[in-house]
Amino acid sequence: VTQLSPLENYKVISGPIVMVVMDGLGLGEDGEQNGVYAAHTPTLDGLFQEKLFTSLKAHGTAVGLPSDADMGNSEVGHNALGAGRIFVQGAKLIDEALSRGDVFSGAAWQKIVECGESAGTVHFIGLVSDGNVHSNISQLFQLLDACAEAGIERVRVHALLDGRDVAQKSALDYIRPLEERLRALSVSGRDYRIASGGGRMVTTMDRYKADWSVVERGWRAHVLGEGRFFSSASEAVETFYREDSTMTDQYMAAFVVVEGETPVGTIEDGDAVVCFNFRGDRAIEISRAFDEEVFQEFDRVRRPDVFYAGIMEYDGDAHIPRNYLVEPPLIDATLGDYLCASGVTSYAISETQKFGHMTYFWNGNKSGYIDEGLELYEEVLSDRVTFDQRPWMKAAEITDKVIEQIEAGERKFIRLNYPNADMVGHTGVPLAVEIAVEAVDLCLARLLPAVEKAGGIVVISADHGNADCMWTEKGGKRLPMVAHTLNPVPCIIKDFSGQNDFVLTDLAERGLANVAATLCLLLGFNPPTDYEPSLLKLK
Ligand code: 3PG
Ligand code: CO
């Protein structure tokens, strides 16, 4: 990309531009079910009265998802924030590649079919739900049908249970139809079954190296056949519900399906393995475990010689995994690319759980620095707990570090993510959600004066909703809602420099993709012409 051109009539300001992403904090209906409304938030309440306050669409087509029935998520949200345009995202790309047949025309699918032809088993590992955040069960069904059509005789599914992007205890709504489908396909000499699984937060789907033991547990269940034995996946889920009435899907222990005492589908030399999650953050670690010759993260005990493919490429910098079925969205010319080309110093920070959101997702699913001379990325280590236990998370530590950077005065563009409203929102514990939102509010109360003192500008927004709906009501009963919402998110721009007179532009619709151009403007540049328009203009 080329250097950005300076904005005419812009008066240079002394302080930084600080972008705050309040992960999972949307604008929902007033009421006790809304954790943002219910929390005590004097700072946010004041910000919502600001002159430059607006709301942004953060779901569906505004972030490249198939339809407006799709809630937003952190990947698509941060992609849009960091790249200033709307890209067709994984969920839709895979749908299209399946219906057009592109999935089956490449070299990777050919390898999978060949493996089946030489008596290998084809394994599918992934999240079994229709959350459409990491995966979609309808895509798995199409892959299974294609296996049957290609004459593959033996297929095994390693089913990760969701309960986080969908209802907390909905596993059987997916597992039963999956078992049914596999049974129906198991004719004419075919043998298709679920072989293992487990709750996504304790099995396989760790992210950003927060806790490799999660991946190890998955490896042991899927590859080695170690875990609690059951005769079927639905029996596993039913048993877990029965033994502990508070158990929800995302935390269920790893399980292995056995016949007698023998696991029905360990992963062996000569097999093929497909990870059918399209989103990368939680698929990278298990992919590395299969792909890497030398591997220190845990003891694999046995590394089968398999053909491993992701349904997509998960990291465009590190090229993880080595093989994949569908090209990922090409998210190029990001704000980070432009700012580096223009010599702007920057700083990005969050705690582990969202660290990659502010770096990898923000930079278009590339994990490295763009220009290490100009950028600094910092990670505060997250606790390894379910975050209802510590709803304040590391918000204060993140704030400390940001204030340090503001005071040091060397970084022109600072971006940070407070994970609280999202990570606690996913636990479904109302009191904890309120405390999470209050923790963010308290930190903003410390952050704002620091930006003011430096004479900077702060932009406060979110990537999608979550805490803004903690439950829905049906027949007088509260049904916990742990997933993201379809609500818009706030966007507040508070200019403490007073150097320039910014006003909101008239736009038919405002969405997350309008933020990058806005940041260009606040930094004194003309936004790239192909970016979605800025939310502001100079008066
Ligand atoms: C997760 O991975 O935790 C959820 O599926 C989505 O949450 P995020 O999009 O907010 O990271
Ligand atoms: Co979330």
TrEMBL record:
GO terms for molecular function: manganese ion binding; phosphoglycerate mutase activity. Its EC number is 5.4.2.12. GO terms for cellular component: cytoplasm. Its cofactor is Mn(2+). Pathway: Carbohydrate degradation; glycolysis; pyruvate from D-glyceraldehyde 3-phosphate: step 3/5. Substrate binds at residues 134, 164-165, 200, 207, 279-282, 354. Keywords: Glycolysis, Isomerase, Manganese, Metal-binding. GO terms for biological process: glucose catabolic process; glycolytic process. Mn(2+) 1 binds at residues 422, 426, 484. The active site is at residue 74. Coiled coil: none annotated. Transmembrane segments: none annotated. Residues 94-315 form the BPG-independent PGAM N-terminal domain. Residues 16-526 form the Metalloenzyme domain. Mn(2+) 2 binds at residues 23, 74, 463-464. CDD domains: iPGM. Catalyzes the interconversion of 2-phosphoglycerate and 3-phosphoglycerate. This is 2,3-bisphosphoglycerate-independent phosphoglycerate mutase.
